[in-house]
């Protein structure tokens, strides 16, 4: 049996009177690639943020603490409405990819990738920006992997959106992530860049066995790239199963009649 890398049990989150996550349960095994679907506002981002301990412990959004148990990579992230400090251990091994890339645009591509290695860098070295040759080599390998080795010395702000997202993936590789959480990674990209980014995510999932949980608003990408789909509707898990089982009826019930199912 494969190792479980994410376990969420009975997760509930309220923002004031808004019950944003309702008794959510989720289990992801090592090596899985899971699409998280659902209409806008259904709780996808809130769930992903919980997996990285970004909500329960965040005072600014912590209207009421979330309830439920979350374990990632074998360590508790939150339990009994409390954020667990052990989340630091799982965060170090969790790459987070954002719709707007969240790179440091005034730094070079290589420097952005090196940031992924900060956790394994002694403090004095990271403060002086001195990375070892081995780390630089590792960062170059990560850039090679996403097809951007030739861009290493460029400023991030010179790159296209699709290229910036590939830098973010290289940063996760540099981090030696065991899990990648990607929140709408292709929502701002054109179809060609979307395909390249999804191909890379799929490739590292297959070759490195990195578990990927990716929120998507295009059902066809989910079906094409992700063997499993978890769909949220109004904060509840509405569907959890093989993507080929997403039939027209399920999609119509999930999105209303707005979305046409993939051909
Ligand atoms: P999705 O990613 O599926 O579009 P979200 O997780 O962003 O949905 O939001 C789920 C619900 O929680 C929405 O009703 C949203 O308005 C609410 N919500 C999310 N984040 C916050 C926040 N920081 N403060 C208040 N409400 C929030
Ligand atoms: Mg979202």
Tell me what the structure shows.
It is a peripheral membrane protein. GO terms for molecular function: ATP binding. This is Phosphonate ABC transporter ATP-binding protein. It is a single chain. By secondary structure, this protein is α/β, with parallel strands linked by helices. It is built from 9 helices and 11 strands. The chain has a 6-stranded mixed β-sheet, with helices on both faces. It has a 5-stranded antiparallel β-sheet with strand order 2-1-4-5-6. β1 and β2 form a beta hairpin. The radius of gyration is 18 Å and the shape is globular. The mean pLDDT is 91. Magnesium ion (MG) binds next to α1.
Q: Give me the count of strands.
A: 11
Quaternary organisation of the protein chains: single chain
What sequence of helices (H) and strands (E) makes up the elements?
EEEHEEEHEHHHHEHEHEEH
* CA-based shape: globular
Q: Main β-sheet, in a few words?
A: 6 strands, mixed
Strand line-up in the sheet with most strands: 7-8-9-3-10-11
Low-confidence stretches: none
Q: Roughly how many Å is the radius of gyration?
A: 18 Å
Helix content: 25-40%
Briefly say what this structure is.
By secondary structure, the chain is an alpha/beta fold. 33% of the residues lie in helices and 26% in strands. Its main location: membrane.
What keyword list fits this structure?
alpha/beta; single chain; globular; 26% strand; 263 residues; binds magnesium ion; 11 strands; six-stranded mixed sheet; 9 helices; five-stranded antiparallel sheet; binds adenosine-5'-diphosphate
